[in-house]
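So, can you check this one?
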Amino acid sequence: MAKRFLSGRLSGVVGGLLIAAAGVVPAQAQTPAPEKVTLVLNWVPTADHAPYYFAKQQGLYAKAGIDLSIDVGRGSALSAQKVGSGGAAFGISDLATSMVAKGKGADLVAVMVVYANSPQGFYWLKSSGITGPKDFPGRKIGNPPGDAARIMWPAFAKAVGIDPGAATFVNITPQAKNAALKSRTVDIISDFFNEHDTKVIEMGDDLVHLPWKQVGINLYGNAVVVNGAFLQAKPAVVESFVKISQAAFAQCVADFAPCLKALTEGVSGLDEATQLRQWERIKWLMTDNFTTEKGLGWIDAARLKTDYDLVQTYIGLEKPFDPATVFTTKFLDPAVKMDASKVKN
């Protein structure tokens, strides 16, 4: 009974933050006609996108004067490009990939990190004879052309001491990764940690997982990015969008059931059990000292500078820039923090 009471209190507190985020809108954002904006995802909608669907279903964006459309993405590189060119106001993109895009002239700014820990990892089968990254040369790695892991592959290869050109990339869709590995169409696949459980279920003890964090690469992962010109022209809209989204993530951490319902009602063909397992992994990815102490979605300047240096060293930037210009935390509500007690170890 006490546990149920506390859970209800927590959901109520976060729900209050959601209402506040939607209702306390700067005066300049309160216009008769709603602001039509697009959020382009990094891939097809899954559990990590549930908070946006939840906030949209609850009418929180609409209450703040935002008419939000959510578009399916085709990789972080393409979402960064679309936002950076003004094709969408907001997007979800891997932060390292966003920095590469900014170096090419993309006009974008990260306003909230979702994956405070890198979700990147490689998977292979023990029975393939691969014992570690030193065995990757001559092997086939399967992932989509715009996949963030392919963009960041040179950094991984150099970190583990292999030639970046020694492995061959094979184009496969996100949905085909598991089948391609299981059938040995490819030797290795890259995937995010939130997809881990589906692989364990399908491949069992023959599966090997190598997190990039384990080899010393723990760059920030997916983040909410906004077009720079849009940010300059309509900061009130950006502030409302960020605060509503941040509070929605906190609500989903407190109680994922309504968020899962909103996701599956908004997107067809999703298996609820799979999405629930993914969300448990995502909560771990969202959690670090900054998101629990400074605010959910917080981006640390020193850590981002380290990421910038890694990208510049291993991948290269066509045009270097001040890393402080690629992010801001000013729109985040410091009262909304990541609840580490909700993360399962």
About this structure: Residues 142 and 170 are 5 Å apart (CA to CA). The radius of gyration is 20 Å.
